[in-house]
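Much of the work behind modern protein science is quiet bookkeeping, done one molecule at a time. The fold becomes a row of whole numbers, each drawn from a learned catalogue of backbone shapes. The protein below has been through that process, and both of its lines are reproduced in full.
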Amino acid sequence: MTVYRICARYIALPVAADWREKLAVRLGSRPRRLGRWAELGLYGALECLVDAAEGTLSEHAGVLLSSQYGPALAMRSALLQVREDLPLPVTFLQTQPSQLLAALSAQLRWCGDARFITHPDPLALLALALTMAKQHADGLLLGWVNEVGSESSLWLRLQPVADPGGAWRKANDFASLLQSASHVRLGASELAVMMHS
């Protein structure tokens, strides 16, 4: 059983009003041709990596991105444009979640395993991520990005470590896991967390 330390986190729920300006400062200019959803994810991922003191990811790390709805607002725009004719090329590209993964890879100058999964249950996704993480010697950058309702960009940087010993408990509350967990592991039957002491 592999144990993962949460070595960095970025929790924007909801995001700050000036998040787009902060992203532009970090990038040196406003991103071009990215939709709002992709910008929101890029912002959170880069902030998480700053917290981890990582300028890029190792080639042995993976990226897993999730969302309940994906770039829903871009999809709505594309559907409105379809009523008139074909959607504009930039609008169509903004409906593709892979645009966020490509933008993040380009910004980090990183090539590796990056995936997107739409799933409504963040704990189930975390369990799946830990199963996938076994393929990555340097762990995962894991994010949840949503723009429907309250905009959010939630990211964890997970790295495999030896079991530190201590009290493990079943993970049943995603919010407390995001805020207070120091380690996560996937046992034979359940996802477990160790909280900060």
